[in-house]
User: Fold RepB family plasmid replication initiator protein from Falsirhodobacter algicola.
Amino acid sequence: MDDIPRERLTGALRRGAVKKHVAAIHVSGKLTLLQRRLSNVLLLNAYDTLTSQPVHRIDARTLCLMIGYNSNDMDTLKASLRGLAETVAEWDMLDEEGRQEWGISSLLSYAKLKGGICEYAYSPALAEKLNDPKVFALINLNIQRRFTSGHALALYENCYRFVRTGSTGWWSLELFRRLMGVNDSSYYEVFKHLNAKIIKPAVEEVNRSSNIVVTAETRKMGRTVTDIRFLIRENPQLAILDLDDGEGVRRSPVYQRLRKLGAADRLARQWIAEHGEARVDGKLDYIEGQGDVRNPVGYLSAALRAGAPEPAAPLSDRARRLQRVQALVAARTPTQRDADRRMFLARLTGAARDDFERHGWMSALNAEAIRAFWDELHPGAFDMDADGPRPI
Assistant:
């Protein structure tokens, strides 16, 4: 799940939601909530190169932050990776020619931690299946962090894949218990217990915390419940979670300047993400110094693309530091940038936190703390030579 713009991945995957006659990959519900989050983040990290690259890597510290572990808790990370390697994914589906295909694979074929990097791989067969957008619908990380129950997240994952068809179709209770990870418990063989302890609480949390609303329906043989299905519809109150909200970017002064110039919302956010606030801000200053420009948005686009000349005045130390921060941020993957922001925010309170939420890494109130944060991640990043900061 790594080097990918989250908004592009999410949109592409959701456009390829599960079709009616294609069965999804089922994963044992015995995974803990944190293991299930780990599985999703690893897949997000690897998604663009699932079939073209046999091995995937992600910074272990970033990985811990993204799934809610203490960044130094390597023992828990090791245990969770071990759990994924011991968990079986199973698929049973029709191919394009209508032939039935059944298969199983461990979720991870191997994983290792070395030098602060988590390296891992999927079996070729599973990578091929996960790479098919008709089979797997990526779970939005903003949504999964809202769940407090592993059963609820498991139910959400298995229902969200069918959001476009409106129903999961009928599952036998045996399959449902396996998806929830309670198939080896005699207690949950009694439907009354399964309904009270698993189904009702999971449905309630999915409906409260996610972008879909699910309703359980059962089918009986005589008086015995034999099958269950879930009807699915979008939750309009929480549909915003399905998108990259971009609120932090929209609050930045550079974004406001771009919008005032005439740039569309999506274009403004794209430029900030690609070039960094400091670079875009500098180009805006340059354009404003050119007087009346007939097509300022087009001019800015060309300036960002071709590197139009900057004002000749030398940069101040503060401006250099700001540019350095933007370069460091730009060098991180989308997953890492999200983790960096959350980790830094966790250190702030009161006015300092408010200022960072408004201005991001350009926050003047947090300038020294921001420098210290990035210097910790990249020692010597702000050492100046005659031409400015040294390369990363």
Q: What stands out?
A: The chain has four domains: 1-133, 139-245, 248-311, 314-392.
